[in-house]
Amino acid sequence: MSEIHGLAVHAAGAHLLAYKYDPGELKAHEVEIKISHCGVCHSDVHLIDNDWGISKYPFIPGHEIVGTVVAVGSDVTDRTMGERVGVGWQADSCGICEWCRQGEENLCAKAQPTCVGRNGGFADRVRVNSRFAVPVPTALESENAAPLMCAGITVYSPLRNYDVRPSSRVGVIGIGGLGHLGIQFAKAFGAEVTAFSTSKDKEAEAKSLGAHNFVNTRDTGALKKVAGSFDLLLSTVSADQDWQAYVNALRPKGMLCLVGAAPAPVQVQAASLITHQKAISGSNTGSPHDLAEMLDVAARHGVKAITERFAMAKANDAVTKVKKNQVRYRAVLTN
Ligand code: NAP
Ligand code: ZN
Q1: Which among 325, 326, 329, 332 is the best mutation to test ligand 1's pocket, defined by most ligand atoms within 8 Å of the CB?
Q2: 4-149+286-334 sits in which CATH class?
């Protein structure tokens, strides 16, 4: 097999530089994918900057991959040459623990992220365990589908797992890559949707995507006005927030689910959870089964990422724009 060419970061916060590596022999359970598109998730930015202390340099970021299967290992029976597939945050898991066996591979203790300790999708090709290469429905364009592989599944899973239904009132906090898909999926689940944003200029677009209401979180009084309103609040923000105000915004039995990786400990009054039986949770991407289901729902309900396209060689420009919160709403690199 020939070398894989991509863009790697060699130290925390550094620019991406051209990089190649020898992937060695294709393993029996692996597929090799020729990448056409790769989204730029804010988690890539966290990894580039080593915000989570787990980055190993050099590495090629990228975990919102769409491409074509160009090689299959000798034991692979679930994927075929030429098939269009997507890969998200996860590239492998043990396959035998209780979580893998019940189709919750994202909870496996040996879950292998696509671009932590290995090389991801800012490249011409990538290899993963075939179980984590999910077919992309023909109704979805590759550029719009790539961001679904991480951003999409991350907002879809809590809506599904916390039983959102037409009577539900859902708030999506932070209207970026994840959030703009969260609005669309919450609408597809039939919920009343409220967008919470620091960016006033996103109001019209949030509403066109399906938000019924828009709360400008720069307006300190606005959060108080929606106290007691929501069954589910989904925070996609990577910065610390007034979590108590969001707990106060929940209805009895409401859930504040964090998918955005805010750095500081989340502090709220215990009594504010106890009195009306509220909860705070986290959610981590989703399993291959849920990815396939989410892609099908996206295809049927017209959920798609609004993208800004960059040539792969311009990945540094895309990363800079993500850091400045200037992308509307997902940067996608193309080969
Ligand atoms: P993104 O595209 O940069 O969007 C984040 C949004 O948060 C921004 O567009 C902005 O929305 C809002 N925001 C940014 N800074 C803020 C601040 N200081 N205060 C309040 N709001 C702020 O990022 P993303 O790709 O959607 O990822 C969001 C977070 O989710 C990241 O932390 C990422 O690592 C995490 N993530 C988690 C999972 C998981 O499995 N749990 C999966 C993927 C990503 P407004 O302009 O509307 O305010
Ligand atoms: Zn991601």
Answers
A1: 325
A2: alpha beta
